[in-house]
Amino acid sequence: MKNKGKSFWIIALALIMLAGSMYVPAGSPTAAADSNFADPVNLGHHIESVAVYDSAYGEEDGHDVMYTTVSGSPAIFQVIDLESKEVLRSYPLEGTGAVWTHITVPNGNVYIGGNGHLYEYSPGTQEVKDLGGIGESVVYGLSYDEDGRVYFGSFPNAKAGMYDPSTGEMRDYGTVAPGQSYTRSTAYHDGFLYLGVGVDNRMVKLDVETGEYESIPVPDHVIQGSSVWQMDAFGDYIVAGVGGGDNSLLFYNTITNEWEDTYYENNKGLRLIQGLPGSNKAYFLQNGRIMEIDHETLAASDTGVRFGTFIRNTGWVELEGDPDFPGYSLVTVQFAGQVTYMNLETKKVKTIQLPVVGNPIPIQTLENGPDGNLYMSGYPGGKGAVYRPDSGTSEMFTLGQAEGMAAIGDKMYFGVYPGAIIYELDTTKEVLDRQQIYDIPHQDRPFEMEPVNDKLYIGTIPDYGKLGGSLTILDPADPDNAQVFENVIHNQAIVALAEKGDKLYGSTTIAGGLGIDPTEEAAKVFVWDLESNEKITEFVPDIPGLDYDPRMISGMSEGPDGLLWSAADGTIFAMDPETLEVVKSRTIYEDVKHYGRWRPIHIRWDDNDMMYTTLAGKLTAIDPDTLHYKTLGSTELMTVGIDGDIYYADGTDLMKIEVLENTLESAMDLISEEAADGNISHPVHKQLINSLKQAAHHRDKGDLDQARKFVDKALGHLKKAKGEDVANDLEVKLALKTIEL
């Protein structure tokens, strides 16, 4: 917190500024005369990541080059010379945060699938063009035909699209998998586009001229995953890879229009590795081995080459002057921007870290740690960071996309997507190194983590295409005996938990994983017995001011009044934990309906018993006694630091609003401003000022105890004031509570 000066100094400072110029350090917080909140200060971005999902390959000026895009805000498309190991050119893709697909077409141009937009890079002009899209959020799975037309899938409406570079036409085929979210991959063959669907694993065959399509289910033996996320043409076969489940690699015969009996499990790749031109071979990654497929028999044999991660996309290049890599070698990119070369003749593998330009990435989660520092995760996952308010420094560490965080003792715990993996980080150690301690079965996103008696109670969102979240009870000292209670609330997921006494209270969202529609109509509150580990009750709360049942209730937190506070859409409300009745509520943001899907609203408290929340995506300060409020900004992520100040996320940046301390004089100024604005009636204004003048009199005599009594008396006057006498007491109450004598 920062002190406000006395009235004299405020006036003096104003005169100085009128008389001449004055130096103010960059980033110094300032406040209006009638506010306890300083102006927001940008603390900068603290998470940078090289997050690469895909690549493509080509040739420029006689050199082999790689085309790839680093995720961020915005994502950056980069042209990298594989021989000189230089980044030749980079292009920000405005409006796109991540790219899942690239493809090089026969004329050398590169197409890039972004956040709803298709981009084209020309090695000739060295320019990137935004070609637009078909009204979707993500472009997936690029492929092309013999005429150079480019095809793609999409999210969230499982569409098919086509761009014709000869005419500039962008064709929207519409949804080809009604009720589904993803067309995650595509492959073109002989007049038809084949699309891999998620979450309901199947393939769609689309006539690219007529737009007619048919659905082709995957074979019955397939253990389904999140989607059919790999699709490639291999001769007369369409090779389809299922992401998740048993990771099946399947072969569809386009002549017989049937799936072949041959298939392979544990395939780890987003694209098939096509053999050299003229070859009848293809390759895939299975259990860390590069396997060769013969087109005539579909038999797979081990090449002897080992690769420990994931095949994203590949090309064939020559490494001149390296005897370990004669002829053509396979090249692929890794998530962190490394390039790996593999030679099938010598079986040699080498990985090189190229100078791929990193990028700030948006903050995904923000929480206080046990050491007084702030912990953050980023999106897309890979890195986290700790920000140290006392020094203003930060440090990145390997994390993943943490959706939830919590602290127990000196340890920080992270719930990471995908797979609902729980990590532990010892904050007392010099090296920030998180360790996996548990993997919650059948779940995906651990948004809610509540420490109770040295255990973690974790509410999760289920896997893709599934309904019904789990409540997991995890003792970090004994993770092998974790208890998982699935589908605690039928077909709903848990997004809020709060302990009080011998009970755990929670609330839900009706949403499941991506790719499935809810079956329930109203979010619920439930009560859990901490001793018997049984659900006591569940119900849809009656929230005054809402004439409908919200789809998500979140943010549950015990307030200083002993009530359980929660949020739904633009409404804040408090429930009596004994009667389970809603005893206070206010709709602060009108016309907000069905806000949010999974991410809980944050409700935090400071030492002055004030509430700070992200209600309806607005950073809002609320007096829990009167429900008077003030909107401070917009964000989905915030917390109150141990210094009492407000920290929140703004995209890639960490922001701070200082809650200012007051003197008696600055408090009287603020109260007078509030009265002048009509927020306080004249009689109440007079009572407050008289009490504070008495406090100043005793302070000046050195009797701080008596001075404090008169400050408390002013608070008493404010509390007794009738509603018509105080239009909004938040600023006045906070000013009185933050007085430093």
Give a verbal description of the structure.
Residues 665-725 form the FIMAH domain. InterPro entries: FIMAH_dom (IPR054470), Quino_amine_DH_bsu (IPR011044), Vgb (IPR051344), WD40/YVTN_repeat-like_dom_sf (IPR015943). Residues 1-26 form the signal peptide. The structure is a single chain. Helix content is 9%, strand content 45%. With 741 residues, it is mostly beta strands. It folds into three domains: 48-280 and 292-299, Methylamine Dehydrogenase, Chain H; 361-657, Methylamine Dehydrogenase, Chain H (7 Propeller), CATH 2.130.10; 664-738, no CATH class. It has a four-stranded antiparallel sheet with strand order 1-58-57-56, with no helix packed on it. Strands 3-4-5-6 form a four-stranded antiparallel sheet, with no helix packed on it. A four-stranded antiparallel sheet has the order 7-8-9-10, with no helix packed on it. Strand 5 and strand 6 (86-93) form a beta hairpin. Helix 2 (664-676) runs antiparallel to helix 5 (730-737) and helix 3 (682-700) runs antiparallel to helix 4 (704-720). The protein is elongated, with a radius of gyration of 30 Å. 48% of the residues are buried.
Key phrases:
Methylamine Dehydrogenase, Chain H, 9% helix, mainly beta, 741 residues
Largest sheet: 4 strands, antiparallel
CATH architecture of the largest domain: 7 Propeller
Q: Report the CATH C-level class of the largest domain.
A: Mainly Beta
Helix percentage range: under 10%
Counted beta strands: 58
CATH superfamily of the largest domain: YVTN repeat-like/Quinoprotein amine dehydrogenase
Estimated radius of gyration: 30 Å
Our count of domains comes out at 3
Mean pLDDT: 92
Low-confidence stretches: 5-33
> How many alpha or pi helices?
5
Structural class: mainly beta
* Fraction in beta strands: 35-45%
CATH fold-level assignment of the largest domain: Methylamine Dehydrogenase, Chain H
Shape: elongated
- Ends distance: 15 Å
Strand order across the biggest sheet? 1-58-57-56
